[in-house]
Amino acid sequence: MSEESHIVKSYEEELQNLHDTLIQMGALTESQLSDSLDAVIKVDKESTDKIINSDQKINKFRSKIDTQIMNLLVKRAPMAIDLRSTISALKISQDLERIGDLAKSNAKKVKPLPYDLPDELLQNLRRLGELVQKQLSEVLDSYVNKGLDKAKTVWENDERVDDLTYIAMNSVTDFLSQDKKNLDFATHLIFVTKNLERAGDHITNIAESIYYLIKGEYLKGQRPKGREIEDNV
User: Fold this and answer.
1) Domains in the chain, start-ordered, CATH in brackets?
2) What is the pTM of this model?
């Protein structure tokens, strides 16, 4: 093997390692988001510490990806599609880390909650959370398979996340109106709802990064939005 061939092979291996690390980070983030939603819906206070601690693994993946990207940029000076892959990986890892942080935050909200939350409230939170989980699963699949259409669909479905956030937030407001003693509980549930909405926003960011990776241009037009919800928590 010539020296040039060896350099090309090493370069391709480093790009593949970056790709594989990002997929592993995505899978762990997906599990973290699912576990935290399950803990909220079941008010499973025993599982929260494990969920909170697992966030450290996501952060380690982010640090590893940063190092891999730095090595690629400094040593290999990637061009064209390879440079897009590197830039996209950096942006996607940032959004995955934030989704993990939001899932950890939701796990922290479980312990103060009562076990007898209204069924309708929990069902509305479940619907929102399951949609966000589906969005994350589909956008990660889009990254793995370079699926342009699926990335665009995730981007367009951000409106549905907003609409279900609005419904879930109304359920929390109704819960608070039933008894002023529910104020503390309702506050935690508002944060849970908003964190799920924000996770949806980061997932949409990932869809935009994938679109840029594949097309070399950014999605045009204003991101679809559902009902307006004040960001005041």
Assistant:
1) 3-215 (1.20.58.220)
2) 0.89
